[in-house]
């Protein structure tokens, strides 16, 4: 498997089209990341909870909003059968994404990074992995199989 295949660029799908789709995906992810970032920082200060717990709280809200962004804009799955299945898979996948983010956040903070930088880096790295799985499994429509 070459590097382009890993990034979701399948045979018959031009690289430019995949990069454009990733751009739209990144827009939805950026929206979710802003929600995650702000809610996490506010919850840590206001509620005195750990950053990892605050991030989980934030992702409850952001994951649903981002799902509908991807459903309507990124992958054009609106109207395709299987909305409930895609939503459940996306929410389950969001738990895994939280685990990746929380693990990286913990490690980056242990390495001495400030919270704001560690959080931004963890969210950014997880976004690439999220796109790969989302485009290949969750939002894969019947015409893409």
From TrEMBL:
- Pfam families given in the database record: GtrA_DPMS_TM
What's the chief localization of this chain? membrane
Could you read off the lineage of the organism from its UniProt record?
Bacteria, Pseudomonadati, Pseudomonadota, Alphaproteobacteria, Rhodobacterales
UniProt xrefs under InterPro entries: GtrA_CellWall_Glycosyl, GtrA_DPMS_TM
* Superkingdom of source: Bacteria
Species this chain originates from: Paracoccus litorisediminis
Q: How does it sit in the membrane?
A: Multi-pass membrane protein
Which ranges does the record mark as transmembrane?
Answer: 22-48, 54-75, 87-108, 114-133
Q: Which UniProt keywords apply?
A: Membrane, Transmembrane, Transmembrane helix
Protein's recorded name: GtrA/DPMS transmembrane domain-containing protein
Q: Name one GO biological process term.
A: polysaccharide biosynthetic process
Q: Where is the GtrA/DPMS transmembrane domain?
A: 25-139
Q: Which family does it belong to?
A: Belongs to the GtrA family.
Subcellular localization, as worded in the UniProt entry: Membrane
Q: Name one GO cellular component term.
A: plasma membrane
